[in-house]
Specification:
heterodimer; A: 439 residues; mainly alpha; MetI-like fold; 3 strands; B: 271 residues; six-stranded mixed beta sheet; four-stranded antiparallel beta sheet; globular; transmembrane (chain A); MetI-like_sf (chain A)
Chain lengths: 439, 271
């Protein structure tokens, strides 16, 4: 400043007016930029709202299931006509239980039991699962035979859809899945209060089924749980150990640069490639069973590792060097410095990265298709070595089903998956908070 | 603070100064960062119970020299040290020397206060814990209290030992770092511009503290402030462009230096 006055008058560079215009322009640019930002966020929120609205509006009905209460007469004539059950236990297993339910329904609606067409139509209104349901009642307590008990049975998928108003009644009767007479019965039952919508616990606990009313994500949930457990147990320690070594111990040279580039590339490899790798290595070479969640877990571990390593290295890098210097200066060994000071400070970042990786793995479908987890599994897997499916694969399979009732169940399963992802992300936030509170 | 009264400190020091034993000494110390040489054949002796100030313009190598004294340079990739640096006659770069033990004997206080993000108590107790200096809670309590007292921080923090060390003011944090260094009972304390991030009042507190610590420790301090060097040190070493320009009694250095470059630097003609 003083130099200018020493050199004579100020050179004419910028008049005050021009400077004002510059400032206005700068402010305008800033306002514009903020507007772009708000628009971008609004755009994102709009699509998120659209997604949630579309899934929830289609899927919320999946959490209700139409049930019919009918007084079923456990007639000995149908179950055990030759009275051999004392000697042959198979009799009770093989009895024609659906007939009991059908006849009960016919009686309830006042339909003549000799009208075969009507009986056939009635039969299609009750879910096939009634066979197992009634059989279980009899097997648990054979003394029920000869008595009449009111049982709540599942309505068949099309009845469920019709009762929820999802079937277009303007379609000609012959093209509909449910005819006018059946509709009349539905109304008749509903008016009596025998046909009601109840909370659908089945969708959470049942395994795969070709009948939508009896299908659930139970097996898929167990399969996904096993896989997440395997991913967590393998990927977290391996990933953290690899990151600590690379970040704190490894010399910086060509080799470690190469490793770093490769890890970053692996994070971007399409998941289907990991699926093929898993198929080749774990199933064909190592001989692990197909469709098993252990293979899925291993494949997802491979897929999640780069994500965890990258997140952990970033978290370790973010720990101020002054903390390391302080510990080393006190005479702590490198190991003590890392485990006493650096790792605890990096923990929130590591956990966030891990949970994001896990959430990613939870929603991964493509590699699981290749290792055979896209299977019809009706029974719960007792161990990770038994066949199972996963939540996203279950969604994929249901989305391919033709029946109307599977549409809402597909959306219902998506809601369940999203809830799990939400829970995991909330968990990440809580863990982060807890660790950060330790300053 | 005020563990020892002013006169008592002087008396102890006078007795020890007369012995003027060498605590550490560097012979032909050269330091390289990769291809770049940062120090050229530095020969410098550090006397026991003396505050030695290292001065010089930025980038002259004074911090580099300081960090060779407890081998903190080891943590920097491609840093290489030649020559001989000894602590009580032992070469500290000898392969048989354990760097962990060396740093327990030669402590360090950094330019920016860097307390651990833990409680005040844990900050001080950490060093003794990893070196096994205390066996039970009572012994830890004692070390923590005496260290904080030596750092003149006890009265300010005794009621909040469980609060985070990072919540203290800058000057208090730096004294906490000094207490943390003192807690391991080192023989030498290295200070790398310990007051550059502090305000004048906090600086005065730390300088007072350095003066008191001199009774029990050998101190090497890097500083950019001529006045600070003049106030706290007995010996001063002037570095310039990787060379040790002059080493002298502080009184002589600031009144009648032997070297023209020292004269120029102290007068503020360069640097």
């Amino acid at each position: 400043m003083t130099d200018f006055t020493a050199n004579g008058p100020l050179p004419v560079t910028a008049s005050p007016v021009r400077r004002d215009i510059g400032i206005k322009r700068r402010y305008a640019a800033e306002r514009r930029f903020r507007l772009y930002g708000i628009l971008a966020i609004g755009f994102g929120l709009l699509f998120l709202a659209l997604l949630i609205w579309s899934v929830v509006s289609k899927g919320y009905t999946a959490f209700q299931q139409t049930e019919i209460s009918i007084p079923v007469e456990f007639s000995e004539k149908v179950i055990d006509p030759q009275n051999k059950r004392a000697t042959d236990p198979n009799v009770l297993m093989m009895a024609n239980y659906p007939v009991l339910a059908r006849d009960a329904l016919a009686k309830e609606l006042g339909v003549d039991l000799s009208d075969r067409v009507a009986l056939k139509e009635l039969n299609t209104m009750i879910s096939n699962s009634v066979r197992v349901q009634l059989r279980d009642i009899v097997l648990r307590d054979p003394s029920v035979i000869g008595k009449t008990v009111t049982v709540r049975v599942l309505a068949e998928g099309n009845v469920d859809s019709a009762f929820k108003g999802q079937i277009d009644l303007s379609v000609p009767e012959k093209d509909r899945k449910i005819n006018d007479r059946q509709l009349g019965w539905i109304h008749q039952l509903a008016e009596k209060g025998d046909l009601v919508k109840a909370f659908n616990t089945g969708i959470f606990v049942n395994g795969a089924s070709s009948r939508p009313e009896a299908a659930g994500v139970g097996v898929a949930l167990i399969g996904s749980f096993y896989m997440m457990l395997i991913v967590l147990v393998l990927a977290l320690p391996i990933g953290v150990a690899a990151s600590i070594y690379l970040e704190e111990f490894a010399p910086k040279n060509r080799l470690t640069d190469l490793i770093e580039v490769n890890i970053n590339n692996l994070a971007a490899v399409p998941s289907i490639v990991y699926g093929l790798l898993g198929l080749a290595v774990f199933i064909n070479f190592a001989g692990l069973p197909r469709s098993a969640s252990v293979v899925g877990g291993l494949v997802l571990t491979l897929m999640t590792l780069p994500t965890i390593i990258i997140a952990t290295r970033a978290a370790l890098k973010a720990v101020p060097p002054s903390i390391r210097a302080a510990a080393l200066g006190l005479g702590a060994s490198k190991m003590q410095t890392i485990f006493h000071h650096v790792l605890p400070l990096a923990m929130p970042g590591i956990l966030t990265g891990t949970i994001i990786g896990l959430a990613h793995a939870l929603g991964e479908t493509a590699p699981l298709l290749l290792i055979g987890m896209v299977a019809f599994v009706a029974d719960y897997p007792g161990t990770p070595l038994q066949p199972a499916t996963a939540l996203p694969v279950q969604i994929y399979m249901w989305a391919n089903e033709a029946e109307r009732a599977f549409v809402e169940r597909t959306s219902g399963a998506i809601i369940i998956l999203l809830l799990f992802l939400l829970a995991m992300n909330i968990g990440a936030v809580i863990l982060r908070r807890r660790f950060e509170r330790r300053w | 603070m005020n563990m020892l009264s002013e006169t008592a400190v002087e008396k102890v020091l006078e007795r020890k100064m007369t012995n003027a034993a060498l605590k550490m000494s560097g012979k032909d110390v050269c330091v390289f960062y990769g291809e770049k040489q940062a120090l050229y054949n530095v020969n410098l002796d550090i006397r026991e119970n003396t505050v030695t100030a290292l001065i010089g313009p930025s980038g002259c190598g004074k911090s580099t020299f300081l960090r060779t004294l407890n081998r903190m340079n080891d943590t920097i990739d491609n840093c290489r040290v030649t020559g001989r640096i000894s602590l009580d006659q032992d070469d500290i770069y000898d392969p048989s020397i354990d760097v962990v033990e060396l740093r327990a004997r030669v402590g360090m206080v950094f330019q920016k206060p860097n307390p651990f993000p833990k409680s005040i108590y844990e900050n001080v107790a950490y060093g003794p814990r990893i070196h096994g200096l205390a066996r039970n809670k009572a012994e830890f309590d004692e070390i923590v209290e005496s260290s904080l007292q030596r750092a003149g921080l006890w009265n300010e923090v005794k009621d909040r030992l469980n609060e985070p060390g990072t919540g203290l003011s800058g000057g208090q944090q730096q004294r906490l770092c000094i207490a943390r260094a003192v807690a391991v009972s080192p023989e030498v304390i290295l200070m790398d511009e310990p007051c550059s991030a502090l305000d004048p009042i906090a600086t005065a507190r730390v300088e007072e503290l350095i003066h008191e610590l001199r009774a029990n420790f050998t101190i090497v301090i890097v500083t950019h402030s001529m006045q600070q060097a003049a106030r706290v040190s007995q010996r001063t070493a002037m570095f310039h462009m990787g060379l040790l320009v002059e080493e002298n009694d502080t009184d002589k250095m600031f009144t009648n230096p032997d070297d023209q470059r020292t004269q120029d630097y102290i007068m503020g003609r360069f640097g």
